[in-house]
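pls design
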């Protein structure tokens, strides 16, 4: 058996894989020139200036056309977008929102910062929200679900929407990690009542920070626009929405996207199809080769293979200890892999688990719920089990064929070395 690099053997690759920044690694002169044009126009604010280029508007219009959804709003970050979405739906103090146990802290944090409280649902073999577990956390104080397709793999949106319709609650899609995925041919983010996208550094396309909110509802959109812009709605004519300020103005915050961000995002959005096509091609080749050579290796379940974007290959190992050995050994081979969120459900981060906030009496957790919100370490047992032993291989859009071959050979080498006679 070939000696592993972690034990002094020759690495499968001579250098690390490209960094896991899909959008950033394809940045170039196009983004630089677009940003420079905004700067030389001396008009970085989207609504007024000496020579506004309306880059944010162009981004919104392009996303609307490509996603097939009428209303798109550029915002300063995905977290801001989640808060805007919750506020647009009227979610607040005394409300609960269902959140998957496997997600980034921003999903649950946005709920708390919107003055509501998250309740956590378990995952299935896709590592996404398990529709069969929704009933466990459902009560009359739950007002919404946030569905999160983790790392490019679609959620089972049909069942989630059916559950939401049964109880007449809202569905928010947090598509931060999975821009471009589809579910039964429909873009994620456009299936629920409102969807949120991220353009943060790690994401499929990036502006460093930034995001977008999408919806099919004029009423929800109007509230989203107002909340993101201090209660104002400056584009009534553009959208032919004429709710009066006297009757509809609400107190809001500043979550506006800048023109520089909009200009970069527009160029990145234009590269999305190329990024997705490249990742999916590499992903398919790697996964097919590993399936053939390593029949004992379990992969993360993919709910919709045609809708999955192939940004990350999830490999499920028999135990947490073996998963950690597998990850460390692969990294020594210069095949960069990771276990998500330190191997723990997101409710285990201390600020959530202990229900601590910056507000008096840990508001909004101080609300006297009829059904008190309590978090325990084992409340989502499949998440506890699966997150800790799932190893992710990020699939870069700029991989070369040699990279792909070395990844395949390296994973086979490490799997056989780590598993030994165990299977």
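designed seq:
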């Amino acid at each position: 058996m070939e000696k592993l690099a972690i034990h002094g053997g020759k690495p499968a690759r001579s250098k690390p894989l490209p960094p896991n920044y899909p959008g950033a690694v394809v940045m170039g002169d196009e983004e630089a020139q677009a940003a420079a044009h905004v700067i030389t126009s001396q008009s970085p604010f989207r609504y007024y200036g000496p020579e506004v280029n309306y880059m944010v508007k162009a981004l919104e219009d392009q996303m609307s056309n490509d996603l097939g959804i009428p209303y798109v709003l550029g915002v300063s970050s995905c977290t801001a977008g989640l808060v805007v979405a919750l506020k647009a739906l009227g979610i607040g103090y005394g409300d609960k929102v269902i959140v998957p146990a496997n997600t980034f802290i921003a999903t649950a944090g946005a709920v708390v910062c919107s003055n509501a409280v998250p309740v956590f649902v378990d995952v299935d073999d896709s590592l996404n929200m398990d529709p069969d577990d929704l009933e466990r956390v459902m009560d009359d104080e739950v007002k919404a679900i946030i569905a999160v397709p983790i790392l490019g793999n679609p959620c089972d949106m049909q069942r989630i929407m059916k559950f939401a319709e049964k109880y007449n609650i809202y569905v928010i899609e947090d598509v931060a990690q999975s821009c471009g995925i589809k579910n039964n041919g429909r873009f994620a983010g456009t299936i629920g009542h409102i969807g949120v996208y991220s353009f943060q550094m790690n994401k499929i396309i990036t502006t460093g920070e930034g995001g977008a909110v999408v919806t099919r509802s004029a009423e929800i959109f109007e509230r989203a626009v107002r909340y993101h812009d201090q209660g104002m709605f400056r584009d009534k004519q553009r959208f032919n929405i004429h709710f009066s300020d006297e009757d509809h103005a609400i107190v809001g915050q500043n979550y506006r996207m800048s023109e520089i961000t909009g200009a970069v995002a527009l160029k990145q959005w234009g590269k999305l199809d190329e990024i997705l096509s490249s990742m999916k091609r590499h992903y398919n080749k790697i996964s097919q080769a590993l399936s053939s050579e390593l029949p004992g290796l379990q992969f993360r379940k993919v709910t919709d293979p045609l809708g999955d974007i192939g940004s990350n290959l999830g490999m499920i190992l028999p135990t947490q200890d073996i998963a950690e050995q597998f990850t460390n050994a692969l990294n020594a081979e210069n095949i960069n892999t990771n276990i998500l969120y330190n191997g723990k459900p997101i409710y285990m981060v201390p600020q959530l688990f202990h229900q601590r906030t910056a507000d008096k009496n840990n508001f909004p957790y101080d609300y006297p719920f009829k059904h008190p919100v309590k978090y325990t370490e084992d409340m989502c047992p499949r998440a506890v089990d699966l997150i800790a032993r799932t190893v992710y291989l990020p699939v870069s859009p700029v991989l070369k064929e040699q990279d792909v071959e070395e990844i395949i050979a390296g994973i086979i080498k490490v799997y056989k070395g780590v598993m030994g006679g165990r299977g």
